[in-house]
Design a protein that fits this description.
The chain is an alpha/beta fold. The chain has a single domain, classed as Alpha/Beta hydrolase fold, catalytic domain (Rossmann fold, 3-Layer(aba) Sandwich), CATH 3.40.50. The protein has 14 helices and ten strands. The strands form two sheets. Strands 3-4-6-5-7-8-9-10 form an eight-stranded mixed β-sheet, with helices on both faces. Strand 9, helix 13 and strand 10 form a beta-alpha-beta unit. It is globular, with a radius of gyration of 18 Å.
Length: about 350
């Protein structure tokens, strides 16, 4: 499925907010009116906060409300919905974590924003933090969310951010992509060279399926892509019944507004993030990588570790992009994250 296979695999429990035009700001209603009538009446999971710009920011929560807040910064195509899964909920209950998973512009209930940059993101997160009344919190970014998480480490108040971690994160543009396995690298290059064509392809092939009330057709399409594109342990993980069902729901969340957010995420890979890694003064960023990851490779992780102050790099031997996020590893990463901070 090319770039979309990088989405995180989770067991997902949904809490839904009906997306209806009378309940949302006028600017967003104009965007939603461009969707077909069935899409405008879908149950889209999440809560919302109105940003100073008038945009909506959608977000998800799970775990005890009195737990230590951990913000999950998703990749793409992906969603903050990931944190409502059984795996994440179990970790939250065991470690006393309150997960918060914002959706970036164009995902789920979040308003698209044509001029989006990586450096815009901290202000969105600050508005969410203030809305939730958080005095302190931790940040965990994954995959394509790396730049956004590090921008938060750079720009959000040090007194609020306890620690920052990156799991299987893509490196910055300056790192290059030669370390990726050939199919993933070529897919990324194709998005760079033919962005309009790829966006149109997803708009015609996947978005209509994501806008159906019955997601069986979307599930069938994605299953076929996984069966054709993977083998061995990765295929087994991807097609495990509960994890696969969660993946379908997450991809629906990513595509229900259209392919804009997916395309924007891929576009931003081919631009500098707007800051150098050396500009991130936040000390001790945790970097967790899988030794067999051919997408967000250990080379990328070590590149960042060499440039972030007092960073801590750990590699999980034998794991891939699809197996690193599992029960034992996740709890180890979260304990490391919580142990590194001050909240």
């Amino acid at each position: 499925m090319m770039a979309c296979i990088q989405s995180r695999l989770r067991w997902t429990r949904l809490s839904t907010t009906r997306l209806t035009q009378p309940s949302i700001p006028r600017a967003y209603r104009r965007h939603i009116s461009t969707l077909n009538s069935s899409a405008a009446s879908l149950d889209i999971p999440g809560h919302t906060v109105t940003l100073p710009s008038g945009r909506l920011l959608g977000y998800h929560t799970s775990g005890p409300t009195t737990g230590t807040p951990v913000l999950y910064i998703h990749g793409h195509p992906d969603s903050g919905l990931t944190i409502t899964g059984q795996l994440e909920t179990r970790a939250a209950e065991r470690l006393g974590i309150r997960w918060i998973g914002p959706d970036r512009p164009g995902v789920g209930l979040s308003t698209p924003y044509d001029a989006q940059t990586v450096l815009d993101y901290p202000s969105d997160i600050q508005s969410l933090v203030e809305h939730l009344g958080l005095k302190s919190y931790y940040i965990l970014g994954t995959s394509g969310g790396t730049g956004f998480a590090l921008a938060c480490a750079k720009d959000l108040p040090r007194s609020q951010v306890g620690a920052v971690g990156i799991c299987a994160g893509i490196g910055p543009y300056e790192c290059g992509f030669d370390s990726m396995v050939e199919p993933q690298r070529k897919a990324l290059e194709a998005w760079r060279d033919y962005p309009a064509e790829f966006k149109a392809y997803y708009e015609s092939e996947y978005v209509p399926l994501a806008r159906q009330n019955d997601i069986a057709a979307l599930a069938d399409r994605i299953r076929g892509e996984f069966e054709a594109g993977f083998s061995g342990a990765d295929r087994e993980v991807l097609l495990e019944e509960n994890a696969f069902a969660a993946t379908v729901k997450t991809l629906r969340q990513a595509w229900v507004q259209g392919a804009w957010a997916h395309a924007k995420g891929m576009e931003l890979h081919w631009r500098p993030w707007g800051f150098a890694l050396e500009d991130v003064a936040f000390p001790g960023v945790r970097l967790w990588y899988a030794s067999r990851d051919g997408s967000t490779t250990p080379v990328m992780g070590r590149f960042m570790a060499d440039r972030l102050p007092r960073s801590v790099y750990k590699e999980f031997p034998g794991d891939s992009h699809f197996t690193i996020w599992r029960d034992g590893n996740l709890q180890e990463m979260l304990r490391d994250l919580l142990g590194a901070g001050h909240p």
